[in-house]
Amino acid sequence: MKFPEVSLVVDHFDEPELDFRYDQRSHHPKDGLFLYGPYDAPRKVQEVRIGVIGTKEGISHFRSWSDRLLSGIAVPPPSPTEKKDRLHLADFAGLEETFGITFDPQRCRALTVEFDAIERATRMENMHEAVDAVARIYTDRMDKFRRNEEGAIDVWIFVVPEIVYERCRPESRRTGLTLVRGKAPKRQRTRSFQGSLLLDDSFDPNIENVFDDIPDFRRHIKARLLSIAPSQILRESTLEPTAFLNSAGYPKRTTQDAATVAWNLATGLYYKTQERPPWRLSNVRDGVCYIGMVYKNLPNNRDNHVCCAAQMFLTEGDGVVFRGANGPWKTGDYEYHLSAAAAEELLGTVIEAYRDMHSEPPKELFIHGQASFNDEEWQAFCRAAPKGTNVVGVRIKSTGGDAKLFRAGDYPVIRGTALQLNDSNAYLWTSGYVPQLDTYIGPETPNPLMVTILRSKNRCPRMQTVLADIMGLTKINYNSCNFNDGLPVTVRFARMVGDILVMGSAREGGPQPFKYYI
């Protein structure tokens, strides 16, 4: 018996190039930065103003690490099981030599907090209250400095001991700790519906503000600083892994090699303190912008409303975050849809911001997300866009093994391979073997992204155009200095942005640069 066969289109997309200084290009951020320097870097070495908050030990670790960051860090020699040529690793030449910025570790604003106070706060019975108390130890110290001292800070760095990471996240269990009573009942997780009538007379109603936030130290800090400055949170063990050893004399944590850590943190430091990102995409199409949309449940909300957030990324690579209206947008277990008014207002705000930057609306506006669009909200998106702006809805989802592609040889499918199912659906392997690095960085056979063109206001773009754009957007994660990510930036950071926007302390204010959220 002869079975019918369907001929599927298999394509490959070349690795996107990046722009660096002196109009030079490279596929790899590390190569471009080392050889040419950041795109649009200042002509003279620029000193950045850093404020660092931590325990006495944490600040000492930060200064020691900063000295190495400024002087350069070599990649450690390969282990017996590693290849001799590890092209995905690179020595870090030094902050000034690589990025053209510098700072004095001894002169940066160093604010000390007490470890004992942090340790006591982490033991409060109520998790929300404990995390809020720890975050306030850091932010109150920062606020005191800002009230009493002159001089702006470009970026605030929070150096935290391991107990903050272990005890101040939503998944923290705090088993084996002797907990102490705070102002809120141990098991309270939301505001008390009956007010303070049933609570102790000494209970402060303002303490219930902590239930407007997720008990997560990182989200507290990011939300609190949205109107102040970009921030970076570092664990002490990231800076000095050899200072935290187990009983066998090995580091308690397995961290990346020191040179890779330096590359990643230096890239974030440059991005958060300079006007332009350290690199940008080459060969971009003029007048195109991309929006990543995400929906997040609001904590402590009796009506089960959700927050809609939109991240706009420009062809230059930088982004702006917008908050949409909160409302009953959840229409099913995995379905979210805006009302017509909310959809029109959100997209109108995005287009207005784009017009302010470029003096004209975008020619093409791609909406990336993991939800579909119903007729009501899509028609509202189209009304919000000017006549000459084509709006395109694209769904991008990770897959869990429903599609695999194999090739002969020791390495898996090459990054950039695509399997086009039809004009609207395709699998795209954004992870895989990279010939330039002669390796595949991953634990198992890579899974593709499922890309679907859902709707288009005007002419539907070619699938090859959509896939090429997604490949480019996997290379502008300025929170690290990797060759690429597995997800485009529009999708990769969507959950992180949403997690911060739903915090009670982040509900005020307009659009903010993306650098404040990462």
From TrEMBL:
InterPro entries: RNaseH-like_sf (IPR012337), RNaseH_sf (IPR036397). One of its GO terms (molecular function) is nucleic acid binding. It comes from the Bacteria. Signal peptide: none annotated. This is Piwi domain-containing protein.
